[in-house]
Amino acid sequence: MTTASGRGRPGPAGAGGATGTEPGAAEEPAGRGWTLLTSHGRVLLLIARQPDIRIRDIAEQARITERSATGIVSDLERAGYLTKSRTGRRNTYAVNADRAFRHPAEAPHHVGELIDIFTGSDAASPDGHVPAPRPRTARGRRT
Question: Model's pTM, two decimal places?
């Protein structure tokens, strides 16, 4: 039996088509809602781009619950990928760009390499932490 996913497994009714609204977003396979980056990777990238981001904003942008975002930030901090400091009433995060990936297949690589790919910058400062991003001009260029 052929199904919406084309893999012999029934997909949800009405599944199919692209769900991404971003220009150039790949079409989602029908019935299979997965992405190449995990929520942990996505949260790490959001924090690298905006070190003073709120949990609420992480959740919204990563399309996860606030509870999941809080748990992921805690996981990343416990594993040494993040450090958190308090600035007034807000948390500020620093990404440890020198930290290696956890899976043995990616272990020779550091998370700073991933951050560089997605932010288009040289992520690591001399101390191995990702600095706050430089402001952008009206045309989106970094100052």
Answer: 0.64
